[in-house]
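Page header: ASSEMBLY MODEL / two components / 504 residues total.
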Amino acid sequence: MEHITLLLAIVIVTALVFDFTNGFHDTANAMATTISTGALKPKTAVAMSAVLNLVGAFLSVEVAKTISGGIINEDGLRTEVIFAALVGAILWNLLTWLVGLPSSSSHALFGGLIGAAVMSAGWSSVDGGTVVTKVLLPAVAAPVVAGLAALLATKLTYRIGGKVTGGAQEKATAKGYRAGQIASAGLVSLAHGTNDAQKTMGIITLALVTGGVLSPGSNPPVWVIVSAGLAIALGTYLGGWRIIRTMGSGLTDLRPPQGFAAQTSAATVILASSHLGFSLSTTQSCSGAVMGAGLGRKGGVVRWSTATRMFVAWGLTLPAAGLVGAGAELLTKQGTWGVVVVAALLVAGSGAIWMLSRRKPVGHDDVAPAGADAEPAGVVTMAIAAVSPPPTAAAQPHDLTATIPAPAGPVADPARPATV
Amino acid sequence: MNIDWAALGTVFGVSLVATVALVGLFTLGIVGLSKQPEPAAQGGSSGGPAGSAGGSLMLARAGAYVCFGLCAAAVAYGIYLIVA
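Prediction written out in full:
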């Protein structure tokens, strides 16, 4: 560790920050429906998800070893490029969180990497075919596959269980569905830990390799595994309540049988895709499953305005994160001062988004099904609020022109996600 | 560009079948467990009908536990897939 330069240290910290945003961005995948059907209390749900994410991070390092996945050529990749890519991915993650839309953290990372690589070495450094097969096609296929599976499963469960009616019995069966849903949600969390925490491990390892600290092809060191696992677990525990609200009750109204069907479909699709060689995005599978389950119940509705906003966000993820990544790379190319400026802009941009989110905070009380007990604000939440860096007066105007408009422009209504 | 349609098709098929099968099994289990012992409760004096109703109730319960067992096995297999 003695050869770690300032730049490398910045990259590692940034990667961990990305891991953290990844955690709270993706809590919704596993837990949104679990919370909205009342299977688990909000705080219990995120705590369980966090623990499983942490466990998952230690299970294997296979994903970490194949992180770049051939989308960009690793040779000649400089540490600054990775840094610029992370900046793009973090800002896009925070922005989609602010408007409460689920979008793929992996796509944000890919977008940032592509943008930064193109700015650094030209279009030849990006393999267009790989982008289509690894990012674009899965983005279309994931919601369709998961949605269809959830739709059929919901129809089936209502057909078989249709005879069960009446207050007491319906209550008893709802309990059963909730238990099943918790199991499915646990699987999703565990799979998320093994996949997404490892992406960060892969990034840090890649940075260490390009920085000359590690030899190419080495496994991630233990401290990398531990810190990445902790960062994603902490992010998950804080919970991206805005996104949970959108997915749990914004897209459609879920009852316990639907929630069970949706979560099982998501878990199956994620496991099947990652083990049969056609990787599908977790976020998109889960959103698709929720919509499918919504359509599967007689009289169920999907709020297509919210769904459309989500689709738009998916379409914008790659180019928006790419643009920010490219802009950041343009600055870091200028030398050390450029890196420092980008780091300052990242802090300022994150701070600005945080300030905007405080105007209309969404907490765990806002996602619970009606009648759930309110709890006092978590210690961790308050601690984060206390240590979160406020944007400096000098940096903010500059930052707003430099980073916010690019991704913010096309999103129609950044102020409020439509929820009922 | 080389799109692996076969892999996509496999994922599609496996996901669909597995999800529907699992949810179906689980629902059967829940329905089996939720069967109420109505005939037995209302007629304590007549031994015959109550006995056969109790038998079908037992059968429903046993079937439900088999269904839940299969679901638990699927979850275990899922964990195995993640770990391996």
